Amino acid sequence: MSELTKSQPTLTRAGARAALDAALAKAEETNTKMNIAVVDAGGNLMSFERMDGAMLISSGIAQDKAYSVVIGNGLPTSQWVPALSGDPDPGLMIGFPHRPRLVMFGGGVPIMIDGQVAGAVGVSGGSAEEDAIVAQAGADAVTG
Fold this sequence. Notes:
Layout: H1 13-29, E1 35-40, E2 45-50, H2 57-71, H3 80-85, H4 91-95, E3 108-113, E4 116-124, H5 128-143
Antiparallel strand pairs: 1-2, 1-4, 3-4
Helix pairs in contact: 1-5
């Protein structure tokens, strides 16, 4: 490999499916109807499921949570506001929330391999805390 390129781990279809299945199992355990999305290192949707009875509006939110993690270099969606609040430029808190697809509340977590983002899991349908727990179960199934 040259200094002009780098290796980037990314999810396989099997990895995306493992994350989805583990997140679904956790959602069923908590008896919460959720939408679960898994994206690769480029933010591309690899796996998605809307549980019976889950709100339709939450399907796009779950996908956007996973995407937000990837574009934030692995920053969980619950950490966007604290990360931006500590910056001395107040314009960031005004401008960032208006970016398309950016979600800044819990439910999106990274799938990290060797310190690099290999993908992310986004969940929507419960509270931000419930969504984050279910998403983490999905990520843990890959990194476990």
